[in-house]
Amino acid sequence: MCPGSVVMSEKVKNVLKQFDRDKSNLIPLLQKVQKIEGYISPESVKEIGHHLNVSENYIYGVASFYAQFRFTRPGKHTIKVCLGTACHVRGGERVLENIEEDLKIKDNETTPDYKFSLERVACFGCCALAPVMVVDEKVYGSMTPAKAREILSQYRGKD
User: pTM value?
Assistant: First the structure.
């Protein structure tokens, strides 16, 4: 059990109190728990299963159907690199490869210190700014590998 999971468990227990024990509450419960924890932890799955009287396998089966749910702890900062047509043509792939090399992680992975998570995205709809990188909710346009390194160094220094 990781540090802080006892605190998270208390928060999850408080969420469970808001829902009756009907299994139709599974998806709203998962959404609320993920909002609190940032992901669906194994401990939360166990507590939700106990609360709703359903198996952990049932919960994983339902949750894994939906792309919105994640089962791994995300990094403090989420980096998303667009690889839509405009971003791809203007060097988005090079930006992504540079970030992967810099952070020593691949798409859909998190750094061992849980500082960064990396995701490739099909399109942000910011084609005029291509290539685009989003860190948390902040959009960075006209990216180059050098600009990406500079931006990431700023996030490294924030914490």
Answer: 0.76
